[in-house]
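Q: Predict the bound structure with adenosine-5'-triphosphate.
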Amino acid sequence: MAAISLQGITKNWGDTQAVRDIAFEVKSGDFAVLLGPSGCGKSTTLRLIAGLDTASAGTIAIGGRDVTGLPPPQRKIAMVFQSYALFPHLSVRENILFGVKVRKEPAANYEARLKRVSDILGLDKLLDRRPGQLSGGQQQRVALGRAIIADSPVCLMDEPLSNLDAQLRQEMRREIRALQQQLGMTMIYVTHDQTEAMSMADQVILLRNGSIEQNAPPALLYAQPASVFAARFIGTPPMNILPLAEGADGAVIEGSDGPVILPRGSGRGLQLGVRPEHIALVERGIAAVVESVEYFGADTIVGARIGAAPLLVRVPGQLTLAAGDRVRLGWDAAHQYFFDSATGLRRAPG
Ligand SMILES: Nc1ncnc2c1ncn2[C@@H]1O[C@H](COP(=O)(O)OP(=O)(O)OP(=O)(O)O)[C@@H](O)[C@H]1O
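A: Predicted complex:
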């Protein structure tokens, strides 16, 4: 059974439609990520699930129960927000237990639950400190502790790592994912960071202008993007999108193993997409001129131009190339995508 189910959810703020006809389901025990650029409606969707705002239309069910009209406490969900919202004058212990006490849950098992949560999060030696005496990562763990001590099967997180530095973010990603799996929680996690989404999620719900652009597991989103928007939102650097010349029917582009055969009629109104990591420098390929070379240790990003069209190429290791060099580029036909120039939608192969 779906742990969370949204049907036809719309939210209007006056004239602004923050989200429009959103529908998705999250399976029990899955980690779902709401992903998209600023203003696409991620936080709105999360707040509607939490019950902090009321939907203009549609229904929300949690654990098979319609909660559309219920206030937040009756929805039995745990929440972690961007600002940890810890009480500065309370100890770690008191911060973690705060919600449990507010809900007047039986005091009998406070200590056992606190011990379990602080062991899991490595906070056992910090219970008497105040938030001001903790690092950012430790504060984040206290916020997580407060969410998971509630033993709610569903947990919502809104950009919980955005205040942390890059290294700590990565550690906390792994920690949150491990915790979610260990506790069997159903998670809905908001981020605008595609790396975070790809590395943590079972299911990515990609939003654009208040609507769902694509809803798929990370590997599928990467391999079968539904549109130019989805293709360019996932992957670093983003997928190259190249215009195809008018009348470019049949064999057009000379690839690494000879010409790449484009589908008949594909030249008109189509764009070609190839990811930087799928392009190689080859002997026989498409002529290009190098414009920039950036070395990152494990790989090098080469900026080049095929005619007037700019593109990026990611190759492993270091290259002895400089701006102005002439190279030849190739890729496997299996790694090229075609998108309708007018709608941006991907044309299925064949
Ligand atoms: N309380 C509100 N009143 C009016 N408009 C709002 C309100 N909350 C959100 N909006 C609008 O709804 C749209 C979606 O906002 P939302 O906060 O859900 O986006 P988001 O994807 O979470 O963005 P971000 O990543 O920047 O937080 C935006 O256009 C925003 O301005």
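A: The helical segments are 42-50, 92-102, 110-121, 136-148, 166-183, 194-200, 218-223, 228-233.
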